[in-house]
Every structure is written in C-alpha cells, then in structure tokens.
User: Fold this.
Amino acid sequence: MDKQGLRTIAQRLMAGDKGLLAMDESIPTANKRFEEAGIPQTEEYRRKYRELIVTTPKLGECISGAILFSETTKQATADGTPFIEILEHAGIIPGIKLDEGAKDMPAFPNEKLTEGLDGLRERLMDYAALGLKFAKWRAVITIGDGTPTDGSIYANAYALAHYAALCQEAGLVPIVEPEVLMDGNHTIERCFEVTQRVLHIVFEVLIKQRVYLEGMILKPNMVLSGTDASVQADIDQVADLTVQCLLRCVPAAVPGVAFLSGGQAAQDASAHLNAMHVKYKNELPWALTFSFARAVQQPAMDHWKGKDENVAVAQQLLYKRLSINNAARRGEYSAELEG
Assistant:
C-alpha cells in the first residue's frame, strides 16, 4: 500500500473550497431522471449529457474530483476526446462508483445490503490502468419500525471496509458512503441516534480491517428530520446535530467529510453546509465539503431537455449551482446568491 500516495490524493480531493461532483448515476437512475425531464433514455443521450457536464467552462474551479459510472469511463465527446482526459486537463481527479446497488438483505425485512464485491480486485486493476484515482461505495440504511438492526449495519460496514481495503491495495482512495435515508416520519433526534450508531460501527470495522484512515474520505448523510416528519428541523439545528454527530464518531485522522445531499432541495443542502462552516469552521479536525449529485445537476438537466441549443445555458446553471456550494464551504452562502 502506497500510504503517502493515498494521503496526497485524499488531500487534493479536499483542498480549498472545492467539492466532489457525483455524476455516477446508474443506467436505470439516469433513465428515470431523463424520463422525468422529457429526455430520450438512450446511451447516446446519456453520453451527450455527460459531455455537457465535463465540458462545462471553469468546472475545475468548483470541483476537485468527479465520480463516474462505469459506462462514463468509456465515453468520449463528439470529437472523440475521452471524458477522463477532459477532466484531467481541467485539474479534476477522476473517480469511479464501484458498488452494484443495494439489494434486499436475506432474513432482514426492509433492510438492504450493497453488492459488488465479487471480482472487485480485478475491476480495480482495470480502473487504475485507466487513470482513476479514487472510488465510491454506498450503503443504504433505513430508519423504520425496528430498523436499522445491528445485523444489517455490521453487514454493510464489513462490505464497506472490504471495498476500502481493496481500493487502497490498488492505489485508489476509497470514499466510504453509509447513507441513512431521509425517507420516513422520524424526528431529527432519531436520525442523530441512528447516524451516530452507524458511524461508530463503520469506523470500528474500518479500523479492524486495517483501512488506512488518512487515505480515505467519508461521505455521510446530514442529520435531518424525516421527509414526512410533522416537525422539520431548522438550518441551525441540522448544522448543530450534524457536526456534533461527526465530532463524536469520525477520527481526526480522516482527511475529509464530503456530504451527500440525500434528496434535500438544492438550497437546503447549501444552507446546511454553510451553517456548519459559519458556526464550527475552527472546531473541525477534517475538511467538510459537498459531494452532491441531483442537488447540483437538476437545474442543468431540466433546462437542457436533450437539446443541443440549450447546452450553453445548462452549463451556466451547473456552474452556478456548484459555485454556490463553494461559497457554502467558505461560510459565505446567502439566499441572494440563488437569485
């Protein structure tokens, strides 16, 4: 394991006020979003959309890394330039989503276990040869009646740790993503309780499996009220409980925490990240940034609609959304920026 190399990549990913762009939607997810936006659900239109993203002017000012889907690693612009090459030229580190999705967990009703470990060592060798420098694996944790159980949390934690160890063996920085879903009517206090339990177990297992903490990044959920909760926590409460939870659970050796948006409205995700920096910036032992997907892409996709004549404005919308989150990472976000 090249510890110094892993550490250097992780620090580059967390540098400055930049974030990570999650453009790793699976084919079914991408097609679903295209259908909602009235865009044809074909490989060519997925390629066109990803070309729109990677060729956005000044993209490298906003993001340090881009998480790709396997299909995207093989795609190129209309003139034949590989997407990975374009990202590298812009100073953006290319990464890859490695998991194969969360499936129903046997003997654990209403709980999921993420699959994709079979053949992972060989796939990692292939992706390293393509020039990819980091990877991502998502585990899904649901809050419900009797869930999550420790059985499912530990099963997902061991999968995350095995993936992370294999990544580091291959020279890729692992992004470890244990997502406690917003879905449900639970209180923010219940989300805090579950997120704390999940993160404690995840780091317990990562350490047992000898994952090099200085060479990984955590991608967690924010601590939020359930989507259907009768009382929705305000911005300050989300910031307070999220930072408190992280300080209790995440070792200082970890270089950075890059939040997923998890279904939040784009403005809410930015406001929450901003409040954490305004209130706690000098108390954080690790970098705190964003790794959003829909919360930065949606305005651009909605405007594009699959039409070439809409590309330029769609790119401006993507850049704007990303730059707003750069401001949030600096603690300089305001509602006026949304105008």
